[in-house]
Structure formats: C-alpha cells, structure tokens
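Contributing new records

If you add data, match the layout below exactly. Sequence lines come first and carry their own label; structure lines follow with theirs. Keep one chain per record. Anything else will be rejected by the validation script.
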Amino acid sequence: MDSSSVSHERRQPAEKVLIKDIDSSQKVNVIGVVVSTTPLIIDDGTGQVHVRTPEINMKIGDVIMTMGRVVSLNEQPYISADIVKKSDPGWLSLRKKELEKNPKGVKQKPEPIKEKHEDHSNNHHEDLLLLIKKLDKGEGVDIDELLSKSNMKDSQKLVDHFIQCGEVFEITPGKIKVLE
C-alpha cells in the first residue's frame, strides 16, 4: 500500500454531538447518563440512544462518555462503541453548554416563551428538586408519589419542564432521577 492510497482513508474524527443531533453513518462523541444497562441506554437530556459495547460494567446513574459509529437497526440509531468510559457528571453539563453555544450546522432551537411567574417561582423549582432528591433512595422517584407528596399547584408542569430541560431524566416510564 503506498502513501497516496492511505491519505484518503484517514480516520474520521468523532464529532461531539447531543443525542438529538445524531445522524446515521456518523462517528460521534457523546456524554450521557446510563438509564438502562440491559440494553445499555444513555440519556443526555435531549434524547436517548442505545450503545453497543462488549463490556458493560456501568450502573444506572453513571455518567459515561462514548465514542463510536452510529449505525441504524430497524430504523433506530445506536452507537457501536469503540470507547466507553465513566466520566465526571460535570462534563455532561459542560458538553451541553459547549454544543448549545456553538452547534455545528445544527439549527438552534428558539428560546421557549417564558410565562410570567411570581418571585417565589424559583423557590418552587428548588423545593421540588430537593423533594425529588429526598424521595430518591437510589432507584429514582415515582412521579405519582412525588406529585402526591408535593404541596405545589404546578408540580406536574415543573416535572415536565425538568425532563424537557434535562434537569431530571426518566429511568423508566413514570420514574425520574435528578441529574447531578
């Protein structure tokens, strides 16, 4: 093999992306929270994706960084991982900020229209997050249980907002966990 044939077959670098922006046949670098171990599924607050890797020594709630090629199976994308390693949770929020600030060729989502809230709305926000953390014994919190124990009017709206913004994730339908 001569050098001219090698030059056009260079390794494609893994592109840092959010899960919602994954395209087929792309090499990606994604950071997310493990929400299932069988099969391995990660969530970065923008979506979820299956990760295929030979070794899985992760547990639910671990933050991992994975690099690999995106492959489609039954019209469902998954990452065929070359690298999977545990990561510090701070990297997930840093990655989201980095990609929201400088999205490569991705249309930025318009800012959501904010409703007018009273000054104590931030207290409701923090109070509900604290209640979720208090009720979570390691396996997530049942949303119905959370709503019944919360004394706030708009708890369901706040939970939906938390899920949409990535402050919490659904481990399984109806169970949430705070991203820390």
